[in-house]
Structures are given as structure tokens and as C-alpha cells.
Amino acid sequence: SDIIFNPWKKEENGNQTRVILYTITLTNPLAPKTATVTETQTMYKASQESECYVIDAEVLTHDVPYHDYFYTINRYTLTRVARNKSRLRVSTELRYRKQPWGLVKSFIEKNFWSGLEDYFRHLESELTKTESTYLAEVHRQSPKEKVSKQSTVRRRKRAHGHLRVPHLEEVLSPVTTPTDEEVAHRIKHVAGSTQTRHIPEESPSGFHLQSVSKLLLVISFV
Question: Which segments carry the region annotation Disordered (predicted)?
Fold first, then answer.
């Protein structure tokens, strides 16, 4: 609640940043019922409109126990995979400003992962509702509207395939805070990470199928 979106600002290095302020509800009996949050988002210059967006969000939760010890980094990678389909991949880290002693560290990490899972489970639920609403609206359209919409889409210039290729490695990279040189390359190691969970996901096979199709076309021509 109480969300405040500040406008995007372009930095000298080409990235864009913005700050979001909001209030969250907490269920932990050792914490207050609500807490204020400052989220600083960075959209990297490697992002391309309508093709791929890579955004890191640094999240500082105030008014919670040991809030000055840690912060969260979430990376959102939104990639276009079809005309009406996108893929959202999220990776996250728990980072420390200063090292707590053992019992406090266990307390922080336990509550960190629990709260994070609840948050993204809720996000998944909301995205599913939005998708269902969109599909229902499409099915309710009259045949004439569908034909008109499809013809409009066909006339639209399709994005060049080569625009996506340079960003594949960036899309697959985990959460990190890259330098200017690292943005253009895949970052294989995460600097400053102390706690990271990775959920494996099958890589998209669209580019492989495209290569096979081109190969078959060449063979047929010969």
C-alpha cells in the first residue's frame, strides 16, 4: 500500500534508475505489523524495447529487526518469446552490509526466504489472473474483430531476430551488479553474494529450431 513511483532517470552510463516507496504487511510475531520499503530499480542499457528488459531491484526494508544488516537484490528479466508471449525470470540474493553473529544470521535468512517465497507466489497468482482475464476477453471478441486484429498484426513489421541474440547471455545471467563492460557479457560469478538459491529452468529452444529450419532450407535448395 501507499505506493509512490518516482520517474525513471537516465544515468551517465546509459542505464535508467527509479525509486519506489511502499508499505508492506508483516506476519512475523517478532516484527511490527507493517514496514516501509525503499526499492531502487536499475534498468540496464542492454535492454531493448519490446524485446528484452533486464532490471535489478535493490530492496531495503525498514523497521524490521536487524534491517541495517542486510538488503535484497532481485533481478527481473522479461523476454519476448513470441508475438503474444513473454517469459519472466526472477533471481534473487540476500546481501549483507555487515556480518551478524550466527544466531542472528540464521534468523535473518530463515525469514528472508520465507517472505520472498510468499511475495513471488502472490506475484505468480496475480499474473495468472491477469492472463486468464486477457484470454477471456480474446475469446469474447466477435469473429469480425478477431479478423481485423489479426490483419493488423500481420502488417506489423516483425522485429529482427538478430536483435535478441546479443542479449541471450545477459538474460540468462543471475543477479549481479555489473560494470559497463560486464553488462555486454554474461556474468558467470555473482560478486558479493552470500545467499543464493537457483531454480533450474530449461533453456528456450526457439533458436535451435530456427537454426534447424534454415539448415533444412539450404539442403532442400541444394
Answer: 141-160
Q: Does an H or E element contain 136, and which?
A: helix 102-140
The per-residue pLDDT for 191 is 37
User: What are phi and psi for residue 45, nearest 5 degrees?
Assistant: -65, -15
Q: What is the C-alpha to C-alpha distance for residues 14 and 159, in angstroms, rounded to an integer?
A: 23
Q: Which of 41, 56, 37, 38 is nearest to 7 (CA)?
A: 41
Q: What is the dihedral of CA 54, 6, 98, 200, to 10 degrees?
A: -20
- Residue with C-alpha cell 513470441? 82
Entry pTM: 0.61
The cell for 215 is 539448415
Which residue bears the cell 531493448? 48
- Spatial contact of 52 and 76, defined as CB atoms under 8 Å apart: no
Residue 14 DSSP code: S
